[in-house]
Design a protein that fits this description.
Strand content: 25-35%
Protein name: Right-handed parallel beta-helix repeat-containing protein
Number of domains: 1
CATH class: Mainly Beta
Distance between the termini: 43 Å
Keywords: Signal
Pfam families: Beta_helix
Radius of gyration: 24 Å
InterPro entries: Beta_helix (IPR039448), PbH1 (IPR006626), Pectin_lyas_fold (IPR012334), Pectin_lyase_fold/virulence (IPR011050)
């Protein structure tokens, strides 16, 4: 789990083979079509102006009184499934026991009146739990709960089919919201929670059919878990783990400590589109040890200034970028709406670096360097098969690794003004690279095999992009820093049909 990589002696190896035949050099005027930029989008300002709930109880609803502690949990227990509950204006409380919570029944709906707040008073761990399917929560503020690390406040048991709409889930410890299969989170404010705004994780199985749409996800990871547990990979706006099929669209993800959106380990079939990702301390988006995604028409601005600068200041040459694909790629054998990772029609402005495609040569099933402990690829469910001598031969040589392959990056706009970012070194990188394989001693991936594969054999391709500013490019390993002409020329032959200029006026 997390974005760990092994640093070692990076080789200076000359690559010999070409990828695709292109020509071009820096600052040479060419008649090329401009990429179509992502459309200008208004952000989902949900937190500042949440849509109010009904001022009167819906027909047939059970009314919940804020003056009676535990009234919501007790009336839920006494009512049949498919009951609607209307919470009057005011501060609603649970019993003063840390495990006191609301346990909905199948099909229950909870609707808040204007000003209705369910407050955990820093006493209760969970707000809504249990395994009931098809629960709906609308127009309700949930705050002040103290879920433990890696647990969540709303839907803390990851039940299926929940709908969270026009809700405000704020100022809780742990994750504000967990997720189950077929969950829909729409037009809600996930703000100021201690670990995540939402943790999409379902223990013991894969989570399918998730929709995250039109939300504001802001200021999460207030407890700064990466500092408390360095390398935990457990922070950010939203974390996805083993999610199969997710539509993440039209959200405003900003000012989170850590990454904005982080898909970590065996996620598949994501569509991340039409979002605005601003001012997150870390990467706007991390897609790690995962498969098959479309990332399009997002506006991505001023991300990674804190974490990128931290790496640079300590002399780390790794190009940690604002869109970071780590051991992730297209895989036709894993069923999805696409068989590649396609990144297009996005606008990236004044982030700390651009897009990095990375593959850790030492990270594979059964390797001690696999930080997703006890997990294997979706192609080899039986982890113990990935061992000598079989791993050194087909098909396990390929199938025991998460591979950064079949990634296509096109018709994007990348703009960088270093004076805005406030940097002098290493904030200007696009990269495709791997490390020199060294570990463990039985690994069949030692040496430069993975670095050469990701750079020239695995169909990773940039083309028809626009670059504004002083961009550099890293290929094969961190020591190979290229200008645009070298990046476009043999042996790399990237960014066919792209344009490069110093400023928008140039």
């Amino acid at each position: 789990m997390g974005i760990k990589w092994r640093h070692g002696a990076w080789p200076a190896v000359t690559l010999a083979l070409a990828l695709l035949a292109v020509t071009g050099c820096e600052d040479t005027p060419v008649a090329r079509p401009e990429p179509t930029p992502a459309p200008t989008r208004s952000v989902a300002r949900v937190c500042a102006g949440p849509e109010p709930g009904p001022a009167k109880a819906p027909p047939g609803a059970v009314t919940v009184d804020p003056e009676v502690a535990g009234d919501l949990a007790e009336k839920t227990k006494k009512s049949p499934p498919n009951t609607t509950f209307w919470l009057r204006p005011g501060r609603h409380r649970l019993d003063a026991d840390r495990y006191a919570q609301v346990v909905p029944k199948e099909g229950n709906t909870y609707v808040g009146a204007p000003g209705a707040v369910l407050d955990g008073r820093r006493t209760n761990q969970y707000a809504f739990g249990g395994t009931a399917d098809g629960v709906t929560i609308r127009h309700l503020t949930v705050q002040g709960f103290v879920a433990p690390h890696n647990e969540g406040v709303v839907n803390h048991d990851s039940a299926d089919g929940w709908v969270i709409e026009h809700a405000t889930i704020q100022n809780n410890s742990g994750a504000g919201l967990m997720a189950g299969a077929r969950q829909q989170v729409r037009a809600s404010c996930l703000r100021g929670n201690g670990q995540y705004g939402m943790n999409a994780y379902k223990g013991g199985g894969r989570l399918t059919g998730l929709v995250v749409e039109g939300n504001e996800i802001v200021g999460n990871n207030t407890d700064d878990w990466e500092r408390r547990e360095p390398g935990c990979g457990c922070t950010g706006g939203v974390k996805f783990w083993a999610v199969d099929g997710a539509d993440v669209r039209g959200n405003w993800v900003h000012d989170n400590r850590g990454a904005g959106l982080w898909a970590d380990t065996n996620n598949n079939d994501f569509r991340i589109e039409g979002n605005v990702l601003d001012d997150n301390d870390g990467a706007a988006l991390i897609y790690e040890t995962s498969y098959n995604a479309v990332i399009r028409e997002n506006t991505i601005r001023r991300n990674n200034w804190v974490e990128g600068r931290r790496y640079a200041d300590r002399g780390d040459t790794f190009p940690f970028a604002t869109v970071y694909l780590s051991e992730s790629g297209g895989e036709p054998r894993v069923e999805a709406r696409t068989d590649k990772i396609e990144i297009y029609r996005n606008v990236l402005e004044d982030n700390w670096s651009g897009i990095t495609l990375w593959e850790n040569a030492d990270r594979f099933c059964n390797s001690p360097a696999n930080t997703s402990s006890n997990y294997c690829t979706l192609l080899v469910p039986e982890t113990d098969r990935c061992a000598q001598p079989e791993i050194a031969t087909a098909p396990l040589y390929d199938d025991c690794r998460w591979k950064t392959q079949r990634v296509e990056i096109h018709h994007n706009r990348f703009a960088l003004d270093k004076s805005v970012v406030g940097c002098t070194v290493r904030c200007d990188r696009m990269a495709v690279l791997a490390n020199y394989g060294t570990y463990p001693d039985w690994s069949p991936y030692q040496g430069e095999r993975v670095a050469e594969a990701i750079t020239r054999e695995q169909r990773n391709r940039w083309h028809h992009n626009v670059y504004v500013g002083p961009w550099k490019f890293v290929a094969h390993d961190p020591s190979r820093v290229l200008d645009s002409g070298q990046w476009q020329a043999a042996p790399y032959q990237q960014d066919a049909g792209s344009t490069f200029r110093a400023t928008d006026g140039g």
